[in-house]
Specification:
The complex is a heterodimer of chains A (657) and B (301). With 657 residues, chain A is an alpha/beta fold. Chain A is built from 21 helices and 27 strands. In chain A, α17 packs parallel to α18. The radius of gyration of chain A is 32 Å and the shape is elongated. Chain A starts with a helix and ends in a 6-residue tail after the last helix. Chain B has 301 residues and is α/β, with parallel strands linked by helices. The chains are: A alpha/beta (657), B alpha/beta (301). Chains A and B meet through α3, α5, β2, β3 and α8 of A and α1, α2, α6 and α7 of B. The structure holds guanosine-5'-diphosphate (GDP).
Chain lengths: 657, 301
């Protein structure tokens, strides 16, 4: 990693040329027209990444004498015989002391044509996480290959990650050509081998350049040692590569960041256009409300704009008064994003704490944060071999394919088509740390859809349903009332059991046929083999719903009390029964009241973290939207509630008054 | 350039505005730290733009070391009026009077380190959850890995291991009670970008940035402005020179450079030709190589 002082200093000609090219004193027209390229650099340790970056920075005068001096001073203090060039780029003392770099560092330089932002990602253990972070904003990736070592596993890994993150331009530099005598055949062998591998990836543009970072060949200046190479130099390529290629200019997407109300008559929606373009007068739709309007104006400080495009931070106003808040998305009427709460994604794990497949996370996507959990972990991808492997979890730096369910739908496009509306992060709700980065591939099919097209009920084909001679109708006539399932849903401690038991007593005393199923009694026997993962919860409800249905078929008023926090679970149970025979009773109660009641001491445990996945604390509760009966135990008395339910059962013709 | 491609300055502007708005949206009580220098002037203008035609939805706060150029203070007050912004000032002198901070002594005495005390106290006083600063990653090596949203624990300290990866433009500002964030919308700007942007948007800056003649003292390889806060040491003498400042901060440690740059274009040309970073002119950075990192750990801007 060490090079001598003499060698770090570039040849004076290089500097002079950079100056002639206008690096000194660009005039106003020139710098106002400069564009921007963000790129990332990747290489295994010692491939020459620091040397290359140091050279680019120095040649473009982004490294100053006082910085160089500081590095020399530091090297002397450490007693080094050489100036360690890595010191120019290694920032934090902790890293310097350990002699490693552990984080993405950003560096800047400019030529008269273009400003460059380098996301410098070190190639150590945390490599994948760093490269994914750096790549997320990059339009180009430089992959270094040491000419002596040729294509190594790491080189492939870098290419894979670049393609996974949809970086449009990949520039493969074969470095240390001076150490292989600038041999064309060495270079060509490497190019052929890498190109063959890269054919498997979806990279739009891949370019190869033979260089010597140390001596400067083909970095800024064309090398005289490699007359056989007639392509551009590295800097020339960086300066001329087409920028903006990842921007989607077709699909207008505007995630609302905040609403600005300077006065009564103006409501401005502030945000950065994620993709597409828009002009005043165009018809727009607001998600999730679905309300339509027209764009009235695009405000900026200087002026109103006739048109704005992806990347612009603007303030939009609409013709109509529509209720809009942060996290909503304004789109063009005839070009809608996907709206779904079940997503198929590729996720890169970035935390020391492995993925908890049963855990709840916060998913941040555009300007929204929603609760999310992993509904299925499909496989892990070995980043070196690209093989898929079964996985139970993901560790730091691992990449996997999974299905994620969110409590509210997201408005998204596949990441491949739109980086800004297809990427998301996962946040641990306890530590608040960002634990993963994800890319949405497409929408996963929702449970409801699956249920309606191919019923989820498992049937053994050789068992014929034995209704017997006694039908439900006969039983109902004998009983003098109809059969039905009363499904009580609500938070733990909301009062479901109290109400259901009292109600059953009332029905029983009236001589009606009843049955009672509750969360705890089925957990002990029937469902004793199930835990609390999403899959197990789903199975728990499936069995209970089937048992409820059998009781129903036997003519009973069946009372079920289950937290059943997910809409999809309750819908599954509903789906098993004829219309009007499934009565959803939402036992509503303020979460704080429920916590105070805490009859079984469960909230206390959940808050201490002894129970994970606890509804209302660490797992979501999706409020019923269409419950037949809603009762509020924190405002109504139990007697009132029982009366209300009895009345409703009568009204529905299930029992006589 | 395609009509939809934006220049580097417009892209940096848009990014900074996005970050400013994220702060306003994600935090209940943000504050913009205003030092009086060109970076914070640019920040104040960006904030104006971000919420236009609304007002800047958070106050600006100046931690006054008491060693400011009078021009800086006059300029500050005029700017607040122009931007229709709310300003809070907290004084290092008050922290000293209250015994919260102890004045350094000797010829190299500086109040830079003391600022941290006043700042942390003020953040606590107003329960600010996010403090916007104008720091850039190109200023110093230790900053190259700094995040846009930089997390500080409940003691205001910065732990390099506890920083969150930042992907795309998704900034995670979730935090526990008492923790806060420093947010740096200008992270991706360089000194040159700042100057070019000042030219692009025709932003007014204090005259100190332009060359003028002034009594100065040569110390540690830089020119310090003569003032009541600086005692002459043996062998030092006042000289009159044509100078300008590349950064404006505490008078006791902000060095001037000899310069004839009298216009923005001159300055831009000069910055392009410079062989020293702007911080090369700051005495406090020279104290130790890891100076910046240490100050960051204890909560410096
Ligand atoms: N001969 C030769 N040596 C090089 C070249 N590029 C880098 N090196 C040397 O390779 C070693 C590792 O380089 P460095 O930049 O620290 O690698 P990094 O770990 O990828 O950052 C150093 O001793 C460099 O001087 C090159 O093009 N030619």
């Amino acid at each position: 990693m060490s090079i001598s002082v003499k060698e770090t200093t570039p040849q004076p000609e290089a500097l002079a040329a950079a100056q002639d090219a206008g690096a000194i004193g660009p005039d106003r027209d020139q710098y106002l027209a400069m564009d921007l390229l963000r790129f990332t650099t990747a290489g295994s340790v010692d491939d020459g990444k620091s040397t290359l970056i140091g050279r680019m920075l120095y040649d473009s005068k982004a490294i100053f004498e006082d910085q160089l001096e500081a590095v020399e001073r530091a090297s002397r203090q450490r007693g080094d015989a050489y100036v360690d060039q890595a010191l120019l780029t290694d920032g934090l003392r902790a890293e310097r002391e350990q002699g490693i770099t552990i984080d993405v560092a950003y560096r800047y330089f400019a030529t008269p044509r273009r400003k460059f932002i380098i996301a410098d990602t070190p190639g150590h253990i945390q490599y994948t996480r760093n490269m994914v972070t750096g790549a997320s904003t990059a339009e180009l990736a430089i992959i270094l290959i040491d000419a002596r070592k040729g294509v190594v596993t790491q080189s492939k890994r870098h290419g894979f990650l670049a393609s996974l993150l949809e970086i449009p331009h990949v520039l493969v530099t074969v470095n240390k050509m001076d150490l292989v005598d600038y041999d064309q055949s060495v270079y060509e062998r490497i190019v052929a081998e890498y190109a063959e591998f890269a054919a498997k990836l979806s990279v739009q543009d891949m370019t190869f350049i033979p260089i010597s970072a140390l001596l400067g060949d083909n970095v800024v200046h064309k090398s005289e040692k490699m007359p056989w190479y007639d392509g551009p130099t590295l800097l020339h390529h960086l300066e001329n590569v087409n920028v903006g290629a990842t921007r989607n200019l077709v699909d207008f997407r505007f995630p609302v960041q905040m609403v600005v109300r300077p006065h009564q008559d103006l409501r401005g929606f502030a945000g950065q256009i994620a993709s597409g373009t828009i002009s005043p007068g165009e018809e727009v739709v607001v998600l999730p409300s679905g309300r339509t309007s027209r764009l009235r104006s695009i405000l900026t400080y200087e002026q109103e704009l006739p048109e704005a495009a992806a990347g612009d931070s603007v303030m939009l106003t609409l013709e109509d008064e529509i209720d809009i808040s942060r996290g909503d998305m304004i789109v063009r009427k005839n070009n809608l994003p996907h709206v779904a709460n079940q997503l198929e994604c590729i996720v890169c794990w970035m935390s020391e704490d492995p993925l908890n497949p049963d855990g709840a996370y916060i998913l941040q996507h555009t300007t929204r944060q929603v609760r999310a959990f992993i509904s299925e972990l499909n496989y892990r991808i070995d980043v070196d071999t690209l093989h898929r492997e079964p996985a139970k979890t993901l560790q730091l730096n691992e990449i996997g394919r999974m299905k994620i369910t969110t409590t509210q739908p997201l408005f998204f496009d596949p990441y491949r088509l739109n980086r800004n509306t297809g990427g998301f992060i996962l946040i641990d709700p306890y530590t608040n740390v960002t634990v993963a980065a994800g890319m949405i591939r497409r929408r996963a099919r929702a449970l409801d859809e699956v249920v309606s097209t191919e019923p989820e009920r498992s049937r053994s084909s050789n068992v014929v349903w034995e209704g017997g001679d006694i039908t439900r109708e006969m039983r109902e006539r004998r009983n003098g009332h109809r059969a039905a399932v009363l499904w009580f849903t609500g938070l733990s401690g909301s009062g479901k059991s109290t109400i259901a038991r009292r109600l059953e007593r009332r029905l029983f005393d009236l001589g009606l046929q009843t049955a009672f199923l509750d969360g705890d009694n089925v957990r002990h026997g029937l469902n004793g083999d199930l835990g609390f993962s999403p899959a197990d919860r789903k199975e728990n409800i499936r069995r209970v719903a089937e048992v409820a249905r059998l009781n129903f078929e036997n003519g009973r008023l069946t009372l079920c009390t289950f937290i059943s926090p997910y809409h999809s679970e309750r819908e599954f149970a509903r789906h098993l029964l004829p219309a009007n025979r499934f009565i959803e009773v939402y036992v509503k109660c303020d979460i704080e009241v429920a916590k105070r009641r805490d009859p079984k001491g469960l909230y206390a445990k959940a808050l201490r973290g002894e129970i994970t996945e606890f509804t209302g604390v660490s797992a979501p509760y999706e409020e019923p939207q269409h419950a037949e009966i809603v009762v509020e135990t924190d405002v109504q008395s139990v007697d009132d509630i029982i009366d209300k339910i009895m009345l409703e059962l009568t009204r529905r013709g299930l029992i006589d008054s | 350039m395609s009509i939809y491609l934006r220049s580097h300055l417009l892209q940096l502007e848009s990014e900074a505005i996005f970050v400013l708005r994220e702060v306003a949206a994600q935090f209940e009580r943000p504050v913009l730290l205003f030092s009086g220098g060109k970076d914070s002037i640019v920040m104040a203008h960006l904030a104006r733009r971000a919420f236009w035609p609304g007002k800047i939805p958070f106050p600006l706060m100046h931690i006054d070391t008491g060693h400011n150029f009078q021009e800086t203070l006059d300029f500050r007050d005029r700017l607040m009026e122009q931007l229709d912004a709310q300003l809070i000032v907290r004084y290092v002198q008050d922290s000293i009077n209250q015994g919260r901070a102890v004045e350094e002594t000797g010829p190299h005495a500086s109040r830079n380190a003391l600022q941290t005390v006043t700042l942390l106290d003020a953040l606590a006083e107003f329960k600010f959850e996010a403090a916007l600063g104008g720091a850039r990653r190109d200023e110093e090596k230790a900053r190259a890995k700094e995040r846009f949203f930089s997390h500080r624990d409940s003691f205001g300290q910065w732990d390099p291991k506890n920083q969150r990866p930042e992907l795309w433009n998704l900034f995670n500002g979730r935090k526990h009670q008492k923790e806060h964030f420093r947010v740096f919308p200008l992270s991706n700007w360089t000194e040159m970008d700042i100057w070019q942007y000042i030219a692009l948007r025709e932003i007014e800056i204090p005259m100190l940035y332009y060359s003028h003649s002034r009594d100065v003292i040569r110390r540690d390889g830089m020119w310090l402005a003569a003032s009541q806060y600086i005692a002459l040491e043996d062998g030092e003498q006042l000289e009159n020179r044509t100078v300008r400042f590349r950064t404006i901060g505490d008078m006791t440690c902000t060095g001037a450079v000899e310069s004839h740059a009298a216009s923005l274009d001159d300055i831009i040309r000069e910055v392009a030709a410079a062989r020293e970073t702007e911080r090369g002119g700051r005495a406090d950075d020279k104290r130790s190589e890891a100076a910046m990192e240490d100050r960051k750990r204890v909560g410096y801007f």
